[in-house]
Structure to design on (398 residues):
């Protein structure tokens, strides 16, 4: 029997801080309203040059450093995100490349704010089955790029950031003991982020569809609030039953960081003190799939986790989805020497150089063979599918 242990963790928050007072200059709101309704004081906003993949890289590199595992030893990379730069390639593939994790499979996971716990469960099961040994599970988001900054009901809640854990297989019992994943798509209209493919495009010979969808987060806050308070308690009870544990065995619950009031209400339903929940939503806001691993890092930093503690992760969000995992925290991070740290950084620089060389190599082969480069193919395809301007205007008018 193999057990999936968390052996490394890391998080990254962009430098730029957006306070509630800053938000009051953008929409009609106030620090008082935001803080009393949500518990949020500030959130971080990614710089122009940052992307979900670069945030993921920073968190993942830190997690691998603590685990002291070189990136080529990683078998699987899962990035939970609702804000990938591309539908494909996946952010996970970008991350695999940045890390030089040359033996890893990589894919993105879409389960909104529950995504990290979903990913953890998938990876832990793959390790327990013996099919892989080392997995990197990352939650990474640039929510600031998909918000309607005129909608005060949503733009005050979210922030950017990334968190990661490394899981490793071991014969020693412990690690991820149980998980439970759930979904209720009937609530998909309560919290959503429409994609480009929701908007029919004009193709020659077809009519234009009306209703184009704004590609920003839409939310029915009150309904999501109600859903969240119910599923947190149900999901925790479910997963503890699966692991044959009771609430008394749990030292700390790390919930998705959405709103302090949601957690207070859930704590009442569970009949436990709110102190048993770890909260850092005040400083990071709601970072969606990244919020649980970021909170995990803060909890470790604040000395809230002791060896052999049982901890519970609980996520909830769009889908609707919700998920919990119970973990035996039996981690002793290995000593990492400065030499190893520097070697790892050098490996990442080498990985970037390797990518450039591979791309140049492909271009050269295409040039020698006389076949168009991928970029030229795209331009050519664009020419073939672009409608004459006059035709577009005609269609609009009709
Ligand atoms: O990852 C999961 C993501 N989603 C969530 O966690 C969201 C869960 N829901 C919530 O956290 C809360 O519903 C919110 C914080 C979003 C809103 O709090 P609420 O207590 O449910 O407020 P509400 O939507 O019922 O609005 C109450 C009032 C309204 O004014 P009226 O109609 O009573 O005059 C809103 O227009 O507050 C107004 N309001 C605001 N006022 C100042 C809504 N947003 C703001 C704002 N600043 N930012």
């Amino acid at each position: 029997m193999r057990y999936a242990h968390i052996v490394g963790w890391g998080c990254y928050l962009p430098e730029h801080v957006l306070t509630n007072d800053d938000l009051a200059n953008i929409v009609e709101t106030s620090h008082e309203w935001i803080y009393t309704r949500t518990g949020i004081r500030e959130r971080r906003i990614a710089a122009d040059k940052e992307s979900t993949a670069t945030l993921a890289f920073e968190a993942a590199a830190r997690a691998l450093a603590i685990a002291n595992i070189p990136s080529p030893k990683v078998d699987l990379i899962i990035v939970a995100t609702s804000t990938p730069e591309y539908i494909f390639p996946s952010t996970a593939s970008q991350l695999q490349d940045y890390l030089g994790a040359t033996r890893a499979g990589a894919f993105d996971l879409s389960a909104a704010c529950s995504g990290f716990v979903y990913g953890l469960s998938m990876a832990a099961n793959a390790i327990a089955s013996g099919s892989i040994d080392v997995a990197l599970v990352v939650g990474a988001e640039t929510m600031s790029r998909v918000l309607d900054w005129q909608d005060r009901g949503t733009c005050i809640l979210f922030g950017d950031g990334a968190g990661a854990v490394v899981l490793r297989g071991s014969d020693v019992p412990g690690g991820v003991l149980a998980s439970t994943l759930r979904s209720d798509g009937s609530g998909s209209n309560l919290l959503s982020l429409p994609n480009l493919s929701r908007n029919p495009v004009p193709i020659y010979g077809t009519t234009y569809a009306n209703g184009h969808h704004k590609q920003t987060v839409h939310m029915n806050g009150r309904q999501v609030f109600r859903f969240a308070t119910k599923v947190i308690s149900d999901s925790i009870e479910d997963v503890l039953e699966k692991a044959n544990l009771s609430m008394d065995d749990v030292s700390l619950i790390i919930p998705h960081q959405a709103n302090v009031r949601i957690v207070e209400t859930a704590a009442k339903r569970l009949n436990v003190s709110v102190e048993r929940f770890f909260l850092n939503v005040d400083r990071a806001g709601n970072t969606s799939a990244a919020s649980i691993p970021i909170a995990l890092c803060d909890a470790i930093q604040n000395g809230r986790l002791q060896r052999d503690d049982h901890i519970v992760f609980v996520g909830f969000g769009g889908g609707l989805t919700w998920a919990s995992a119970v973990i035996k925290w039996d981690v002793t991070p290995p000593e990492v020497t400065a030499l190893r740290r520097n070697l790892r950084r050098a490996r990442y620089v080498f990985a970037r150089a390797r990518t450039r060389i591979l791309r140049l190599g492909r271009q050269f082969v295409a040039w020698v063979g006389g076949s168009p480069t991928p970029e030229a193919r795209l331009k050519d395809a664009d020419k073939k599918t672009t409608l004459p301007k006059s035709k577009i205007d005609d269609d609009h008018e009709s």
User: Anything to note?
Assistant: The two ends are 67 Å apart (CA to CA). The chain has two domains: 3-336, 339-397. The pocket of oxa(dethia)-CoA is lined by residues 29, 33-34, 37-38, 113, 152-153, 156, 219, 221-222, 224-225, 228, 258-259, 286, 317 (CB under 6 Å).
